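Hi Q.,

Before the meeting this afternoon, I wanted you to have the zinc ion prediction in hand. No need to reply - just skim if you have a minute. The sequence and ligand are here:
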Amino acid sequence: MKELSRRAKVRKFAKHGYPNPTCVVCGEGDVRCLELNHIFAETNSDLCGPKCTNCHAIFSDMQEDHEGEDVRRCDRERGGLLLQAAILIGMVILLVLLGTHAQKSGNESLGTMYISIGETLTACITFDFALHEHLFDKYGPDYDKGLTLELPL
Ligand SMILES: [Zn+2]
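Predicted structure with the ligand bound:
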């Protein structure tokens, strides 16, 4: 990577709040293999963080493999419950990756805690999908339209 490109990449990370970027999952700090990535998929949130190419690929693969709704779809009109579920799915994947990395690094307790929190959030995702289905069936596709709550995207 040319020095000019490397510096531009470092400036981009700094602009997003990461003056000394490392992968949020594994801690890789070589800027040549870091990417600024939307943590919960671009359609769900503007929150970005550095991920190395390996962790990014694993994260994306886990998002694609998630059962149920496609969390990366570009439907800005979807209901708030589905958006919340999509963000929670991203959190669960991040926690599982952090937990797995902590366990591989010898911190078994921290890894177990991350994974346990992720499993707990999975129950919230199931609830979001079930409540969405119930409200959709009972009140139709616009069941949450008219709510004035602003989502912090
Ligand atoms: Zn990584």
